[in-house]
Design goal:
CATH architecture: Up-down Bundle
Structural class: mainly alpha
Distance between the termini: 35 Å
Helix content: over 70%
Number of helices: 7
CATH topology: Methane Monooxygenase Hydroxylase, Chain G, domain 1
Number of strands: 0
Mean pLDDT: 89
Largest sheet: none
């Protein structure tokens, strides 16, 4: 019975890795669509978000099966509970990547060159998402805590973008509408970072039994 349970836990790990990879791909496609004005990539991000939704349902079903059929002990129960919480944040990451992709038709950074550190912020959030999932799979408390701390990098980039946008509008008011679109994109990326922090905090709970409110 335990062998079967361990195999299902391994399946859960693999599914979470797969869902995390989809989240990374959605963010990457959305931002590259924005930077290069590639509507094809924007469509890729939106389609990937649908795959993320399906993966969430698959993982939720597996977790419920583990809870109902295997009667897990306390430590295993924490892992499954954490996974259920994590997939909710990952699904929202997919939503926000799709939201960024939908803005592509309104703003073209490839022409203006005003990328205002959006690319750096996207890389930072992808790093957070990747490492938060890795922390769960490896049961790595140190890595989870590093993700939580790294959120400061994303927050600092967000503040830098806001300052850049203020200067952009001050130099030429015609960029006002574009600046609002860029600010919205930066806000979506900041939220993705927040969801990665949530995932990391659930990893901490899975390992230690303690969750930061």
């Amino acid at each position: 019975m335990r062998n079967k349970f361990d195999l299902q836990l391994e399946e859960l790990n693999n599914d979470l890795i797969s869902m995390g990879a989809l989240c990374e791909n959605a963010i990457s496609c959305a931002v590259n669509a924005l930077m290069n004005y590639e509507l094809r990539l924007a469509e890729c991000a939106i389609n990937t978000e649908k795959e993320i939704d399906q993966k969430e349902r698959d993982i939720e079903s597996l977790c419920l099966k583990l809870l109902l059929q295997q009667q897990p002990v306390a430590k295993d129960l924490r892992l499954i509970s954490a996974a259920l919480k994590m997939i909710t944040d990952m699904e929202r990451i997919g939503d926000q990547a799709a939201d960024i992709a939908e803005i592509v038709s309104f703003v073209n950074l490839s022409e203006s060159g005003n990328n205002v550190h959006i690319s750096d912020m996207a890389e930072a959030t992808i790093k957070m998402v990747t490492e938060s999932i890795d922390a769960f799979v490896k049961r790595d408390l140190s890595l989870a805590n590093n993700v939580i701390k790294y959120d400061d990098v994303v927050d600092n980039l967000f503040m830098l973008i806001k300052k850049d946008l203020i200067r952009l509008i001050a130099d030429d008011t015609k960029y006002g509408e574009q600046a609002l679109d860029i600010l919205m994109i930066a806000k979506y990326l900041e939220r993705i970072g927040d969801h990665a922090v949530n995932i990391a905090e659930w990893v901490v709970f899975a390992i230690t039994g303690s969750h930061k409110e």
